[in-house]
Design goal:
membrane; mainly alpha; transmembrane; 177 residues; elongated; 0% strand; DUF2165 domain-containing protein
């Protein structure tokens, strides 16, 4: 196998990790600089005020704006930390490509950041928002399609991140992804 072919997977992992890092950094930046837009989204989802208003579900609604805002701030903090982790992982991938060593460290940190995104968008937005707070019932405040796109992209990147790469560590070390 040529050196070029053996570096394809780490290059793909680096670029894709960087893509998700850029995306989530922009999401966090947008939520910080335009706080009110998605604040309203979170408030409506948690209040369940645009759902079918089924009495069997409405007991789940969180009507306290203080709790709604605390949840939104927690989301922004999680997004920001995930962005920083993925930016650091992207830098580690780039350094590993230059040094031809350190791939495992980049892979581990990338996996942490990607799993953070999968937890937020999968468990948080699809599971809790979509099902527990019945976001799927709302015509105006339904973020499931966007969450599914992010989970799909991030899941693919996580898989690429874990694909084996023959000869990724050209120095002969066992530090391959």
């Amino acid at each position: 196998m040529t050196a070029h072919a053996s570096r394809t997977q780490p290059v793909a992992a680096a670029l894709l990790t960087g893509t998700v890092a850029l995306y989530i950094a922009l999401v966090a930046f947008g939520n910080i600089t335009d706080f009110g837009t998605n604040q309203q989204f979170v408030r409506h989802v948690l209040a369940m005020d645009t759902t079918f208003k089924d009495d069997d579900l409405m007991w789940r609604a969180v009507e306290s704006t203080a709790l709604q805002d605390a949840a939104y701030i927690a989301i922004i903090v999680w997004e920001s930390v995930a962005a920083l982790v993925l930016i650091a992982a992207t830098a580690l991938w780039a350094a590993a490509l230059r040094r031809r060593a350190g791939f495992a460290r980049a892979q581990r940190l990338g996996s942490v950041g990607l799993l953070m995104i999968l937890l937020l968008f999968g468990a948080g937005f699809i599971g809790v928002g979509g099902e527990w707070f019945a976001m799927w019932q709302s015509e105006n405040w339904n973020g499931l399609d966007a969450a599914i796109r992010v989970v799909t992209l991030t899941g693919i990147v996580l898989i690429v991140n874990h694909l084996p790469s023959a000869g990724a560590a050209a120095d002969g070390s066992k530090d391959t992804p």
